[in-house]
Amino acid sequence: MILDILSFSCPLILASIGALFSEYAGILALFLDGFITFSGFQLFLFVSLTGNFALGMILACLITTFYGLLFSFLVEKSKANQFIAAIGINLFFSAFVSFLSFCFFKNRGVLTNPSFYFSPIFVKIFSIILSIILVASAIYFLYFTQKGIYFRITGTNADVLEVKGIHPGNYRIAAWTIATFYAFFAGALLTLRVSSFVPNLSAGKGWMALAAVFLGRKKIWKICLFVIIFCGADYLSTILPNFIQNIPSSVLLALPYLTILLITALDKQK
Predict the structure, then answer these.
(1) What is the pLDDT, as a whole number, of residue 215?
(2) Contacts of 60 (CB under 8 A, 6+ apart)
(3) Residues 138-190 pLDDT 10s
(4) Is the pLDDT of residue 120 over 70?
(5) Of 66, 137, 159, 263, which has the highest C-beta tally within 10 A?
(6) Residue 73 CB: number of other CB atoms within 10 A?
(7) Quick one: residue 218, left, alpha or beta (phi over 0 = left, psi -120 to 50 = alpha)?
């Protein structure tokens, strides 16, 4: 059960780390949901086309991250409203994924392919190992490198960077790109978990990631702890019907979000 909850938490942990980078840069990562869904589709598409998991993963990661870099560059250089731009990105990917799904598979619904099947134990182990590597990389970069220090003051003390001759806009672009990179792996793990692509794959994971960053006060260990609590509630909602009959599905679906609201309310009392 512990292994199940940990692997279940991995996509949201990675999305939360991506949100943390953007939060340090002074940007609210409202675009995560769109990129998570797009990432899952890209992985399914390229693995299905190539028949090779590693190659499909690399191609999907490169394309998804490129889109993150492109959008971040356009938003920064045009000085667009980041909130509106992020919402627009989510809407764009919702339509774009549906369009691509019809173009390649003549289907806008759930996509399956015999070459896109992964055993549950492989997905669990792969999710945990990948998450440990990516979270450790984020910790090292943010807290043990000079650029990481610059990153952490971009959103609060951008003037310090300008005095040093460093353009804060470059770090904001990097924040979007890194957040997209982590969102890709979140979407990829969600797709691997069900061995198929499901429309609206993110299902609010981006918002949950932002809540975890807020509650964790930008401390990675706290963020991971809150994510595990959220996902523990989510996992509980999937197995609860096995023990208690006739539970309304609406209650089960709402359980993770009710957990977030409860923790937020308790946090406000401190």
Answers:
(1) 84
(2) 39, 42, 43, 45, 46, 47, 184, 188
(3) 999 999 999 998 888 888 888 888 888 888 889 999 999 999 999 999 999 99
(4) yes
(5) 263
(6) 14
(7) left
Average pLDDT of the residues in 96-115: 90
Residue 68, Cβ density class (10 Å: 0-12 exposed, 13-18 middle, ≥19 buried): buried
φ and ψ at 111, to 5 degrees?
A: -115, 130
Output the furthest CA–CA distance in the chain (Å, rounded).
Answer: 64
The more confident residue out of 252 and 11 is 11
Question: Which tokens in the block code for residue 174?
Answer: 């990097």
Residues 6+ apart with CB under 8 A from 241: 247, 252
The answer on pLDDT for 251 being more than 70 is: no
* Structure tokens given for 182: 């982590």
The pLDDT value given to residue 185: 96
Distance CA(228)–CA(7), nearest Å, equals 10
Rg (CA), the chain: 19
Q: What is the mean pLDDT of the chain?
A: 87
The string of DSSP codes covering 209-264 is HHHHHHHHTT-HHHHHHHHHHHHHHHHHHHHGGGTSTT--HHHHHHHHHHHHHHHH
Distances (CA, A) of 122 to 2, 57, 70, 126, 163: 16, 15, 33, 6, 49
| Closest residue by Cα to residue 95 from 29, 34, 180 | 34
d(CA 270, CA 143): 27
